[in-house]
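User: quick one, sequence for these tokens?
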């Protein structure tokens, strides 16, 4: 059985069996690189931000400790401000990733349009 001619990340030969006339598996097929990139981008967007989960847990713990009287309100207010700053930083990172993704998509569209103008 023919195997993919691609190379794995560790430098070894890909062991995936391919059907003739194919020479590459899905992961190594150069004609499917854009498709793989789109799929990876979608997967990244669908993953929940783990950092947000930890911030929510921190806020819940802080709230419980304030209500129980274990933390004085002045310190709790400062902690809450720091958590809010962290949340703004997380949101800014998300916006930057989104902007970079849009730039890549726009560049791809511009490339397609340039190709059409020539044809």
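Assistant:
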């Amino acid at each position: 059985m023919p195997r993919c001619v691609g190379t794995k990340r560790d430098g070894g030969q890909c062991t995936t069996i391919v059907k003739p006339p194919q020479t590459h598996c899905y992961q190594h097929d150069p004609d499917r690189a854009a498709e793989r990139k789109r799929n990876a981008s979608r997967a990244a967007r669908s993953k929940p931000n783990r950092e947000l989960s930890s911030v929510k847990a921190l806020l819940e713990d802080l709230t419980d400790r304030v209500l129980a009287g274990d933390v004085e309100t002045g310190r709790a207010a400062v902690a809450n401000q720091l958590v809010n700053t962290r949340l703004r930083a997380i949101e800014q990172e998300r916006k930057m990733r989104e902007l970079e993704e849009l730039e890549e998509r726009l560049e791809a569209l511009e490339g397609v349009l340039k190709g059409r103008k020539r044809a």
